[in-house]
TrEMBL record:
<feature type="transmembrane region" description="Helical">
    <location>
        <begin position="133"/>
        <end position="154"/>
    </location>
</feature>
<feature type="transmembrane region" description="Helical">
    <location>
        <begin position="65"/>
        <end position="86"/>
    </location>
</feature>
<feature type="transmembrane region" description="Helical">
    <location>
        <begin position="175"/>
        <end position="198"/>
    </location>
</feature>
<keyword id="KW-0762">Sugar transport</keyword>
<dbReference type="Pfam" id="PF00528">
    <property type="entry name" value="BPD_transp_1"/>
</dbReference>
<comment type="similarity">
    <text>Belongs to the binding-protein-dependent transport system permease family.</text>
</comment>
<feature type="transmembrane region" description="Helical">
    <location>
        <begin position="7"/>
        <end position="29"/>
    </location>
</feature>
<dbReference type="GO" id="GO:0005886">
    <property type="term" value="C:plasma membrane"/>
</dbReference>
<keyword id="KW-0472">Membrane</keyword>
<keyword id="KW-1133">Transmembrane helix</keyword>
<feature type="domain" description="ABC transmembrane type-1">
    <location>
        <begin position="61"/>
        <end position="260"/>
    </location>
</feature>
<feature type="transmembrane region" description="Helical">
    <location>
        <begin position="98"/>
        <end position="121"/>
    </location>
</feature>
<protein>
    <submittedName>
        <fullName>Multiple sugar transport system permease protein</fullName>
    </submittedName>
</protein>
<feature type="transmembrane region" description="Helical">
    <location>
        <begin position="238"/>
        <end position="260"/>
    </location>
</feature>
<dbReference type="GO" id="GO:0055085">
    <property type="term" value="P:transmembrane transport"/>
</dbReference>
<keyword id="KW-0812">Transmembrane</keyword>
<keyword id="KW-1003">Cell membrane</keyword>
Length: 275
């Protein structure tokens, strides 16, 4: 296969991948009656004005930021400590614990939704208010995938570094903070990206536990908007309004992936080599 053919195929694949995003953005700024046009005759930003002026979309965006950043922060702390323990410490039941963590990946979240909903309801977190943040964050706070990522990266560090630190009298927490974490920054970036996607795009759990529109995350607000709840939105430009809100939801994930893609690809390759 010649280089020209190879690059042509890659370019076509890239265009096919990017087309839905282009169509979504163009539809969001197309005037009423021009929905579906690939090149609109004029641009109309009334749908963007509507979602910020008439809908609590700013609050929804803030809720998603608190929800997602809370999950990411807790996941990075728990994931790095647990991954370090599984990779560098020897204790009874370590392999069994890792097997249990792997097993949790096979459990669908929907299987746990009923008991989790009962728990957060009993604790009062399902009532409208700041407790909704706890109801959203609590079930997502431990991410098995992040633990596995940290474990694999910590396993790849030279044993000599840890032996030297032990000889200097350093404890495990100091070694983790001073040696392991600075050498595994790509692991934190990869874990951040993977963890971010889950709560940011989560719809079902947010819909279940958050009933007030002003406390709902952006993904739930977009889902409700897409269900036809605001069919006369934006001067009757329903699809323009839906795609405007969808664009707002999609942009942060796309930006993060573009920023972290080289670390993500390198991490996947390194994990595959290490086994």
């Amino acid at each position: 296969m010649t280089r020209i053919v190879r690059y042509t195929i890659l370019a076509l694949g890239g265009l096919i991948f990017l087309f839905p995003f282009y169509f979504m953005i163009i539809t969001s700024v197309s005037p009423p009656g021009s929905t579906g046009s690939l090149v609109p005759a004029s641009l109309d930003f009334s749908t963007w004005t509507f979602i910020f002026a008439e809908l609590p979309i700013t609050w929804n965006l803030l809720n998603s930021a608190v929800y997602t950043l809370g999950v990411v922060a807790i996941t990075l702390v728990i994931g790095s400590i647990t991954g370090y323990a599984l990779a560098r410490l020897s204790f009874r039941g370590r392999d069994t614990l890792f097997a249990v963590i792997l097993f949790t990946l096979a459990l669908p979240f929907q299987l746990l939704m009923v008991p989790l909903f009962i728990m957060v309801s009993e604790w009062g977190w399902a009532r409208p208010g700041p407790g909704n943040y706890l109801a959203l964050i609590f079930p997502m706070a431990v991410n098995a995938t992040a633990i596995i990522i940290f474990r694999q990266f910590f396993r790849g560090l030279p044993q000599e570094l840890f032996d030297a630190a032990y000889l200097d009298g350093a404890g495990n927490l100091r070694i983790l903070w001073k040696i392991a974490i600075p050498l595994t920054k790509p692991a934190f970036l990869i874990a951040t990206l993977i963890t971010f996607i889950g709560p940011w795009n989560d719809f079902l759990w947010g819909l279940l536990v958050v009933r007030d529109a002003y406390w709902q995350p952006l993904s739930v607000a977009v889902g409700i908007l897409g269900s036809g709840a605001h069919a006369t939105a934006g001067g009757g430009n329903y699809w323009g309004t839906v795609t405007a809100a969808s664009t707002l939801l999609a942009v942060p994930v796309i930006v993060l992936f573009i920023a972290f893609q080289r670390y993500f690809v390198r991490g996947v390759i390194e994990d595959g080599i290490k086994g």
